[in-house]
Amino acid sequence: MSDDGWLRRTARAVHALGWKPPVALGAAIGILCAPWWGPPLLSHLAYFRVRHVEIVGERYIEPRDILARLRVDTATSIWTDLAPLEQRVASLPQVRAARIERNLPGTLVVHITENVPVAFVPSPSGLRAVDASGRTLPIDPSEVGVDVPVVPRADRVVLALLDAVRQQAPALFARISSVQRTGRDELTIELPTELVRAEVGVTAGRLTDIIPVERDLARRQLHAAELDLRFRDQVIARLQ
Fold this sequence. Notes:
The protein has 10 helices and 10 strands. It has helices at 3-16, 21-33, 38-42, 63-70, 82-90, 141-144, 156-168, 170-173, 204-207, 210-219, and strands at 52-56, 95-103, 107-114, 119-123, 126-130, 178-181, 186-190, 195-199, 224-228, 236-239. The chain has a 5-stranded mixed sheet, with helices on one face. α1 (3-16) packs across α2. The radius of gyration is 26 Å and the shape is elongated. The termini are far apart.
């Protein structure tokens, strides 16, 4: 938050204590100019107790899990040191990064970046969601409706490819049913109506080369059973 925004919020909060506008503004300026003693002084006022927590950026993680990890209540001052709170939230397996800001007089806003699932991997207990690094995420597919490809194992090369496709071509990512190695240097990517063959190490950009080929075939009322990317700068279509 900028100093101007901080100053305005502090002035409004101090004014809400019953001080007249000139006094409130002067107090706000004094607090802003004295960061070492300003927040500790205000932390003793009940007006600045935490009464609300907003969570921004969550998709798969449950807000209650974030609240439980924060461990704040109405006895906590909004002027409490935020660094330990951010570290607590960031320690959750599904959280990649956490940032917390104050919204005076009594709200903490928690911004999170999640570790996003990119695939399901079979396990003795069923499918488990993993992120691009192969980390298992505590996500129940039946509860949150995660729809990601299935891979035989947490192969980091395959997971990195899926993560890149997810970011660069989300519509194509949504069509991928499974990915597996076939042989030492080849991948088979299953789409709803066709297979794509590619070399291990294929990029997301190269994989999107199938899209104009599919469109061209559709225009000619043809359909491929298999699209082969293993030949440089070409897409070989084997028709049904």
